[in-house]
Amino acid sequence: MNKVKLAYIGCGGIANWHLSHLINFEDVEFVGFCDIVIDRAKGFAEKTKMGQCFDNYIEMLNTVKPDCVYICIDPNHHGEIELELIKRKIPFLVEKPMALDMGMANNILDKITQANLITAVGFQDRYLDVVQTTKDWLVGKKIGLAYGAWVGGVPMVHWWRKYETSGGQIVEQNIHLFDGLRYIIGEPDRVYCAAGKGIVTGIDGYNVHDYSSAVVTFKNGVIANMFTGCYTGNGVGMQNGISIVADDVRIEYKLRESATLFTKDGDTVVKSTIDQGVTEDRTFIDAIKSGNGSAIRSPYSDAVKSLAFTLACNESLFTGKEIKVTY
After folding, report:
1. What are the CA-CA distances from residue 107 to residues 78, 80, 111, 259, 304 (Å)?
2. What is the distance in angstroms between the CA of the first residue and the CA of the last residue of the chain?
3. Burial class (CB in 10 A: 0-12, 13-18, 19+), 159
4. Residue 8 binned pLDDT confidence (cut-offs 50, 70, 90)
5. d(CA 40, CA 35)
6. Rounded to an integer, what distance in angstroms lies between the CA atom of residue 312 and that of residue 302?
């Protein structure tokens, strides 16, 4: 395969982020762009100087017959699109969160497994150099506690502000750091999550929590506390990222910026030097060309575990109970 014929379903913000990388790959041919707002699809076609535009993904798939598809849609619109691609045996990269309930996600996973299909989910931070550095620094260390945060403002997209359409901030946004906990520390066993409201006002339809704190007990005994908040602005808030305290070192991963190792002999700071999105997209395209998806760091089969982790947090904050994380 000299060039990968790629199509988009969804042409919004995160789709444009991927496009900014893919447009520089000489082995990618954009054959189709689909969005319910046809002008957004036309905008992508204008940027790439290629590809047909559609407002119906079935029509696009029948017409352009892509080698792979990027799915970049609102969180509550997943399901039929993935199942249609699986039926046609078309590999796909889907942005997180890939579903808002585990029944749908597990059904999609079962079909992916049966079809032996290459997939990827947009957990971009797994491709960061400083995340891998953090993981490497912890080899052989005994970890006791970890803590982290994603605290900021409310992204002003219509679907973000409702549990029904986004799953809330833990599922839609901080899922990146919950996935990071899994990738760096190990698999969670149970979670207890408390949350509050009352600071954010004046946003029509807003019903997500303003802030939450999740206590996570991992299967290896590590205990982590993860803060999530969307009530701050003007540059104030917490240091976003993950801090890990081991027996003889402490590591601070600053979200998408750096990793710092603290030891008795001094501090070591490593700053990120790569665009993790380029690596993520390059890895997926190479997998399509080779037919081998082993280098993909977040295939659908792994990503469902991070989804289950965050949905367990939601269940806890709504029920007030500690929840067992099950896959």
Report:
1. 12, 11, 6, 37, 11
2. 36
3. middle
4. very high
5. 7
6. 16
Q: Options 3.20.20.70, 3.40.50.720, 3.30.1540.10, 1.10.10.60; which CATH number does 4-123+276-299 get?
A: 3.40.50.720
Superfamily name with CATH number, domain 125-274+309-324:
Dihydrodipicolinate Reductase; domain 2 (3.30.360.10)
DSSP labels, 21-66? HHTT-TTEEEEEEE-SSHHHHHHHHHHHT--EEES-HHHHHHHH--
Query: Would you say 324 and 177 are in contact if contact means Cβ atoms under 8 Å apart?
Result: no
Beta-bridge mates of residue 188: 218
Q: Which two tokens stand for residue 298?
A: 């977040």
Provide mean pLDDT across the span 200-219: 97
- Whole-angstrom Cα distance, residue 320 to residue 195? 10
**Rounded to an integer, what distance in angstroms lies between the CA atom of residue 272 and that of residue 259?**
8
> Can you tell me the distance from the alpha carbon of 203 to that of 249, in angstroms, rounded to the nearest whole number?
43
Name every residue whose Cβ is closer than 8 Å to that of residue 211 and which is 6 or more positions away in sequence: 151, 195, 196, 199, 227, 228, 229, 230, 231
Distance CA 40, CA 45 (A): 9
At 311-323, the pLDDT tens digits run: 999 999 999 999 9
Distance, CA of 43 to CA of 307 (rounded, Å): 32
- 234 φ, ψ to 5°? 60, 35
Phi, psi of 21 (to 5 degrees): -90, -50
Task: For residues 300 and 308, give the distance between their C-alpha atoms in angstroms, rounded to a whole number.
Answer: 12
| DSSP code for 149 | E
Tens-digit pLDDT profile for residues 245-291? 999 999 999 999 999 999 999 999 999 999 999 999 999 999 999 99
Determine contact, residues 169/210, Cβ cutoff 8 Å.
Answer: no
HSE-up of 125 (CA within 13 Å, CB side)? 27
